[in-house]
Specification:
Layout lengths: L3 H12 L1 H11 L1 H10 L7 H22 L3 H33 L7 H6 L2 H23 L17 H7 L1 H7 L4 H11 L1 H13 L1 H22 L1 H12 L1 H27 L10 H15 L3 H26 L9 H15 L7 H36 L5 H28 L4 H31 L8 H34 L3 H37 L6 H7 L14 E2 L5 E2 L1 H10 L19 H6 L8
Antiparallel strand pairs: 1-2
Helix pairs in contact: 2-4, 2-14, 5-7, 5-10, 9-10, 12-13, 14-15, 14-16, 16-17, 16-18, 17-18, 18-19, 18-20, 19-20, 20-21, 21-22, 22-24
Length: 617
């Protein structure tokens, strides 16, 4: 049995799908094309065109506001909408019944002619009018339309409602004149519509207060906690990812049903529906095209992509044994990247064939981004395992297996793309991203290997930091070169292929963070290291006799002193440890005196002569 909480959660999600469907229909290019073609006729007045645009704009804004409503207000709004649908449906069927009765031999007053010979339409109309009246009564006397399936309370039944809805049927049986009968469908809905209008007018102030209180609450929340907290709160309240996924599945299911029916009608002469590979491919293409037809549909597809990549991230975290929360954000990162790529490439405005091609290329770029994210999961874990001297063979095997995968998968991917596609800017971008993953993995493995070697050494490896710096610098330089290449590639696309505001903004962001900031940070590290090395080289190096007399450990790393540098205050440290310390500050870790003097260095002999005065402070 399904828990009640799950049913309520499903209901809350389902209630927010219709506004998305309305916005998706309005944004669909087919609707816009139909409106433009309709109003191209000369006999259509221009003010009707702007009136249609105004109606569409109001419908879109209403759907947008409806999506953000509280569940209680959403239910009440749907109740009013369903009341209106019930009334209009009743009017339509009453009008259809009256027109049919007028067209046939209306002057015959025989009861058999009135009832028996038109039994099917009469019963259908009576059934529908009864259902409409029942729905009206239930919606009128209950707070939620979901209670329609409940047991009706006889005290709340308004018999007059049934009479008003059945008025044309009763009038026909009583053989009212034709002139009166033709007006009765409209008279039959006059009372319900009057009640609804009166109810809306009396509750208009309450509706205004709801919107005003929502505005005040939103403003206070943003002022007190910030815009980010406000967005996150409503993102969770509205269950946006789940609603978008459900909406996308609904429109795909609807498109699948339509295409299947069209295929059935196409082969209606045969009793068997031909389900071949070509038909399935055509249906699949149509479904994909429909799934990214509008911005709202793209958001739904993005949510589905995020859902899939989220579990890919969980699977990779399980393999490498990571419990870091940041490693579980692959779904969020993938969703942002996929949506930006869709907007940047103008996915919704392309023709069907180009849309499929662009979507394929976007997924190729997304795949390389996922590989980069997996590397960002593995890299800190490998550094942690090697630096902590972890002897768990299983953990080392798992992370090394993932590294092997990160080297093979991009290589095979590049080989496949270059064998099946001609050279283009998108292929160069995917290739650059894939090669960058391989280089990152190689850099990670080299550093991992150095730390593992250091773990099994008995003496302090003073050159380790230099080797790590050289390897990292090489990797960062290669990444910087790839960043410049991708910027130039993007500039070529924007100028000669498909420009756009979003692409220009993304290129500016890429130029700032991946080129300028990276170059600035790299240069800062290089200058700090160069300055520190110069300072260390200006300090005298301790002799074996001084180290033997000192007979102590480095005060920074607490490792044995096989080599050491002597500061101006006569303290002994590893040259490597002192260099790292100088990255932070220029004062001695023990006595806080300035280590480096900008004036010419003191005579090493004097420093050696004074060493006995401060070695054991």
């Amino acid at each position: 049995m399904i828990p009640r909480e799950e049913i309520q959660r499903l209901a809350r999600v389902s209630l927010r799908i219709p506004p998305l469907i309305v916005m998706d229909i309005i944004l669909n290019q087919r609707l816009a094309s139909s409106i433009v073609l309709y109003f191209l006729d000369d006999y259509i007045k221009w003010y009707l065109f702007w009136l249609a645009i105004l109606v569409i704009l109001i419908a879109f804004v209403s759907a947008f506001a409806l999506f953000f409503m509280e569940t209680e207000h959403l239910v009440n709004t749907y109740s009013v909408a369903m009341c209106l649908v019930a009334v209009l449906t009743a009017y339509h069927w009453n009008r259809k019944y009256v027109n049919h009765e007028v067209e046939r031999d209306y002057h015959i007053e025989d009861i058999q002619h009135i009832i028996v010979e038109n039994c099917s339409l009469l019963l259908a109309n009576i059934t529908l009018q009864t259902a409409a009246a029942y729905m009206w009564i239930r919606l009128k006397f209950t707070a939620s339309w979901m209670q329609i399936l409940g047991v009706i309370d006889q005290r709340n039944v308004n018999i007059s409602t049934y009479v008003w809805f059945m008025l044309p049927v009763v009038a026909r049986i009583l053989v009212f004149p034709v002139g009166i009968l033709q007006w009765l469908p409209l008279v039959g809905i006059a009372l319900p519509l009057g009640e609804m209008t009166l109810s809306l007018v009396t509750q208009s102030r309450a509706v205004y207060l709801v919107f005003y209180e929502s505005y005040i609450s939103s403003r206070n929340t943003i002022r007190s906690y910030g815009l980010q907290t406000y967005i996150e709160t409503h993102w969770i309240r509205l269950q946006v990812p789940t609603v978008l996924r459900a909406f996308w599945i609904v429109i795909i299911a609807q498109e699948l049903i339509v295409r299947t029916i069209q295929l059935q009608l196409k082969y209606s002469e045969t009793s068997i529906l031909p389900i071949g590979v070509e038909n399935l491919q055509d249906i699949l293409k149509e479904l994909i095209i429909r799934g990214c037809a509008t911005v709202v549909a793209v958001m739904g597809m993005t949510s589905c992509v995020s859902y899939i990549t989220h579990y890919i991230g969980l699977f990779m975290a399980f393999i490498i044994g990571s419990d870091n929360e940041e490693d579980r954000s692959m779904g969020t990162v993938s969703a942002i990247l996929f949506f930006i790529l869709a907007l940047q490439t103008g996915l919704t405005g392309l023709s069907p064939e180009k849309k499929l091609q662009r979507l394929y290329r976007n997924f190729c770029l997304l795949s390389t981004a996922i590989l980069h994210f997996v590397h960002s999961m593995v890299n800190p874990l490998m550094m942690s395992l090697s630096a902590s001297r972890n002897t768990n063979v299983g953990r080392h095997t798992r992370v090394l297996s993932v590294c092997l995968f990160l080297m093979i998968a991009p290589s095979v991917f590049i080989y496949y793309l270059w064998c099946t596609h001609t050279v283009g800017t998108w292929l160069l971008a995917v290739t650059a991203f894939s090669i960058e993953v391989v280089i990152k993995v190689i850099i990670t493995l080299l550093i991992y290997l150095l730390f593992m070697v250091d773990a099994y050494r008995d003496i302090f490896w003073e050159k380790l930091d230099d080797y790590v710096y050289y390897i990292k610098s090489t990797g960062n330089t290669v990444e910087f070169i790839f960043g410049i290449f991708l910027f130039c590639n993007g500039g070529w696309i924007m100028v000669f292929e498909s420009g756009g505001t979003i692409r220009a903004i993304m290129m500016c962001i890429h130029a700032y963070f991946n080129i300028w900031v990276q170059a600035k940070e790299g240069w800062t590290v290089f200058m700090k290291r160069r300055t520190a090395v110069h300072k260390i080289n200006s300090l005298p190096e301790a002799s074996r006799e001084q180290l033997a007399e000192f007979n102590d450990v480095c005060a920074i790393c607490y490792q044995e002193l096989n080599t050491a540098r002597i500061t101006r205050c006569n303290h002994y440290f590893h040259g490597l440890c002192l260099r790292k310390w100088l990255y932070v500050q220029d004062k001695c870790p023990l006595c806080h005196e300035v280590i480096y003097n900008s004036e010419p260095a003191n005579d090493p002999a004097a420093a050696v002569a004074n060493a006995d005065n401060g070695n054991h402070m």
